[in-house]
Amino acid sequence: MTTDLSRPAERDLTRLARRWEGLILVLLVGVAGWAALGVDGFANTSNVSFLLLDTTEIALMALTMTLVIVAAEIDLSVASTLGLSCAVLGWLWNAGLPIEAIMPICLLVGAVCGAFNGLLVTRLGLPSLAVTIGTFALFRGLAYVMLGDQAVADLPPAYTSLATSSIGPVPLMTVLVAVLAAVAAVVLHATGLGRSIFALGSNEEAAYFSGIRVKRIKFWLFVASGVMASLASLVYTFRYASARADNGVGLELAVVAAVLLGGVSIFGGRGTLPGVLMAVLLLGVVRNALILADVANEVLNFVTGLLLVASVLAPNLGAIRRRRTSPPLEGKSVS
Amino acid sequence: MEDTPVLSLSQVSKAFGAVRAVREVSLDLYAGEAHALAGENGAGKSTLVKILSGVHQPDAGRILLDGEPVEFGGPANAQQAGVAVIYQEPTLFPDLSVMENIFMGRQPRSRFGIDRRAMRTAAAELFARLGVQLEPDRPARGLSIADQQLVEIAKALSRQARVLIMDEPTAALSGKEVARLFGVAEALRGQGCALLFISHRLEEIFKLCQRVTVLRDGGFVASHPIADITPDDLVRRMVGRELESLFPKQETDTGEVALSVRRLTREGIFTDVSFEVRRGEIVALAGLVGAGRSEVARAVFGIDRWDAGSVEVDGRRLRPASPTAAMAAGLALVPEDRRQQGLVMDLSIERNIGLAGLAALHKGPLISRPAERERARDWAVRLRLKFARLTDPVNVLSGGNQQKVVLAKWLARRPSVLIVDEPTRGIDVATKAEVHRLLSELAGSGVAVLMISSELPEVLGMADRVLVMHEGRLVAELDRAAATEESVMAAATGRSVT
Amino acid sequence: MTATATKTETVRRNGGRRLVDRVARVRELGIVVALAALFGVTGAVNPSFLTYGSLRDILLNSSIVALLAVGQTLVVITRNVDLSVSSVVGLSAFGGALILADHPGVPIPVVIAGCVLLGAACGAVNGLLVGAAKVPALVATLGTLYAFRGIDYAWAGGRQVNAADMPEGFLSLGTRSVLGVPLPALVALAVLLVVGWMLRNFRSGRELYAIGSHPEAAVLAGIRVRRRIIAAFVANGALAGLAGVMWAARFGTVDATVATGKELDVIAAVVVGGVAIFGGSGTVYGAALGALLLASITSALAVLRVDALAQTAINGALLIAAIVLDRLLALRVAAALRRRRFHDDH
């Protein structure tokens, strides 16, 4: 009897997952197709490579954000970490340090920011939501304290042009994203660490009872998130040739939206990296097409916000409808 | 008392998906009568309680209040009808005061809103009626379970409940607290309240109740006046089989000491606990729920920190508060709460089995999928796991098969010391026997087994030695010959502390 | 039960009560002490900080955030959060200003009521998403934070409404004083007292605490959880709508960027004021005191000639300090209660 029960439920679960990623893929192809036909200037090589380049920072931060959210935590401070790292870069550059010495310091700053979040979450058991809302303000505030409202623009051309250079039609930064995405995907889906992240995100207590070092893993996930944010800050700064304290304000929304849209559960334990990458691309295409279609930049946020709500709402509405038609049993009646 | 029952269920059924939790069960509760609901775990008692309290609605059958059919659309309806429920884990609001917990939604009001003085007085009166001392103004956070239950009973009193349902209320109480609870229950019955009492402890049923209804596998078995039935009969009805065949512990030669616990103390939880378990031996840790048995197991395995004492496995001292160190030393713990601590319910069978030994599945930096699958398949076959595919999430398995997955997860590590906490709780009879056979075989192959169990027959049937805990202390050590139901229960309830 | 046992038990219970009480009070008292220290030190360094004009400014500056903090408290005690308030303020401020500028004939009270309704409607959207569709509040309101702001931008289309476009009678509402106290501060105070009284003395108010304290128990207790959660979001939205009008009246210049990022100040005020981020405890008075503290710090920084840019960092640091403090206190209480567990039985 158990076996009879198990089959349809399991099939439905994987089908749902596949269907969600399938849906995102269909949307991506659909929107891109619509843009190619209906929006002037979308379907040419330079625009596509600009589109790819333009998603670099969000894609980078989404990689580690995926791991963090699968582990049932959240890091809302990524964009502020990016800003602080930019401010440090600008400040040290003004102070006359060589850029080669500044870059590792920036990554270190990101690591320290992440470690700060991680310590508060794992050592004191504080909710990451509250902690990272706090550090969201703290890190951005420190950035303002360091750099005020000045823009450091006289950055070395060797690096600014590197950030925007391409290998053929593919931007160099996209290659960077691809390599890191491959690493993240392998870690999440093909290593013991990845198995542990899924387990602890789904049921932290059971993971701990299985000998998984829950706190240590969470701590290092926050550190990785911080380092990735400062890596994104380097790309951002060189790409725009401008280090400012308010670099990347609001990017955390785009990152979280992409991760949730990609099918990662906000409650942890569920999600895939390919899904997230497709969602990053989808949001990038939508943004690019709307800009080309001369829609105001702020309306983009409206679309992003709507997609974010829709991505969480859609599965819930399905569940509510099912609850009306069939007797409830948590987690079983996925049809 | 053969007039109209206050509340009755008539041929009630309830299914969850394909699982029929309750099938055509009838039950009559009379004013001034204490009615026991007996049955093994999974027999459908909790579902029945949730139907009576309006949490679940029956698929078929009727609920009758004073002989008239009613429908409980939600907990609020049942409460209005005078049904009150005391759950095993009381559901109080920790941040709110005791009196507000009692009167939530019905606070006495004056012209200026809630009348706190009247509420305080009313709460104090209720506590006086119950003969307990509780401050109406203190928050519910930090109350002992026994006190929380009294708050729930005060709530029921204040609602003038006519039916009081107590779902395993004594599971976490000390002997003194049980006596106090029974005093209160008796008084309520005397005032004309109908009681429905659920407990695993037969002696409590015989002490408190006048009538007993037995459920088995969701179905109605029998309903008797308590005077017409003996405890042995009752057990047979609940279990539906003879007991003796269940516990096949083989005699084995015991080897050297594998687990040695010395003067282990965790402040406020357990004190000065010392014992040893030898290879080939099954040692049972008995006692009432809340006596600190699971807490000792958790500390030994490194889940919780201990304040004093030491733990040695095969002569090596364990680092405190590190499950990883405990596992490396050869310890394994099958925890008490299977769904919350033992398994990641959303993950597949093979991933759950692999979870405690991920390092062994690595080939270089990556997990070897064939190795993961092979390990899972190997142990699934050995433990006769019933499954469709290894990629099925474990939440589609039955309780017994889920427990086998937990066992497989730990046995795959080839532990030298296995701690099992309530290994057969809530699983079906056939699987129970399999688990017992497995534990016996493991001991036979030289594993040291420490078994925590609240089921006395299991303790007496399986254990070479029985350790008994009472209120955080080890109070008795009985060898197989000396361990009887009487001697173990006496020690567990603190009656014969030596 | 013997007499001695009864006595020890009473002692123990009193001890437990005192401990928990002390923890609850530590917070509001802590803020008052912090305020006193702030005023003392800043006043000593620069006496102009304690003049009437300066104090009046602090009250004026804190009143909008205090109003929002009161509303946010309603949501947070139910174990939810509303990040979208700043966008609702922006929407309401722009909407109100636009009507006043383009349709001078509409009476001011009607405009205010309309803004409050607009806010309530936004709150209803959040409430339905969270209460009915079960979207986690964080995600739902992060989404509507951007969605409402997007509507604001689309509506404004780059337009800015200036003080000159609005009637004098309206603008004076934002600056006028009654008995020396600025009107917005009086409005905030009135709202604070009314909401605080309702939370303490209405059954529905107590139910909000019950929901946040133990959601499942609230269902078992027969509380209509969904309705209450929606109501909390609607009330919060309405207060945000009111705050929007106050913003327009006070600053006079309104575009689509009004109040951007303010949600953080509001949440910081609420958390610093001792409202538990996971629901069930805290008061609106604490939240309002939190808002006052944050506004006072801003003013003090200006007086002390510390860069105003440090404000964001200080808000963040205060928020973190507040939750760390709460956590440490909770851990100490838990440890103390654990030690007592078996003691009364021996």
TrEMBL record, chain A:
The keyword Cell inner membrane applies. Coiled coil: none annotated. It is found in: Cell membrane. This is Autoinducer 2 import system permease protein LsrD. It is a multi-pass membrane protein. It comes from the Bacteria. Signal peptide: none annotated. The chain crosses the membrane at residues 20-37, 49-69, 76-95, 101-121, 128-147, 167-188, 219-238, 250-268, 299-320.
Automatic annotation (TrEMBL), chain B:
Pfam families: ABC_tran. The keyword Cell wall biogenesis/degradation does not apply. It is a peripheral membrane protein. Residues 7-242, 252-496 form the ABC transporter domain. One of its GO terms (cellular component) is plasma membrane. Keywords: ATP-binding, Cell membrane, Membrane, Nucleotide-binding, Repeat, Sugar transport, Translocase, Transport. It is found in: Cell membrane. GO terms for molecular function: ATP binding; ATP hydrolysis activity. InterPro entries: AAA+_ATPase, ABC_carbohydrate_import_ATPase, ABC_transporter-like_ATP-bd, ABC_transporter-like_CS, P-loop_NTPase. This is Sugar ABC transporter ATP-binding protein. It comes from Nonomuraea turkmeniaca. The lineage of its organism: Bacteria, Bacillati, Actinomycetota, Actinomycetes, Streptosporangiales.
UniProtKB/TrEMBL annotation, chain C:
The keyword Translocase does not apply. The chain crosses the membrane at residues 26-46, 58-76, 83-101, 107-130, 137-158, 178-199, 229-249, 264-280, 287-306, 312-331. GO terms for cellular component: plasma membrane. GO terms for molecular function: nucleic acid binding; transmembrane transporter activity. It is a multi-pass membrane protein. InterPro entries: ABC_transp_permease, S1_domain. Its main location: membrane. It is found in: Cell membrane. Pfam families: BPD_transp_2. Residues 16-94 form the S1 motif domain. Keywords: Cell inner membrane, Cell membrane, Membrane, Transmembrane, Transmembrane helix, Transport. It comes from the Bacteria. The complex is composed of two ATP-binding proteins (LsrA), two transmembrane proteins (LsrC and LsrD) and a solute-binding protein (LsrB). Part of the ABC transporter complex LsrABCD involved in autoinducer 2 (AI-2) import. Probably responsible for the translocation of the substrate across the membrane. This is Autoinducer 2 import system permease protein LsrC. It comes from Nonomuraea turkmeniaca. The lineage of its organism: Bacteria, Bacillati, Actinomycetota, Actinomycetes, Streptosporangiales.
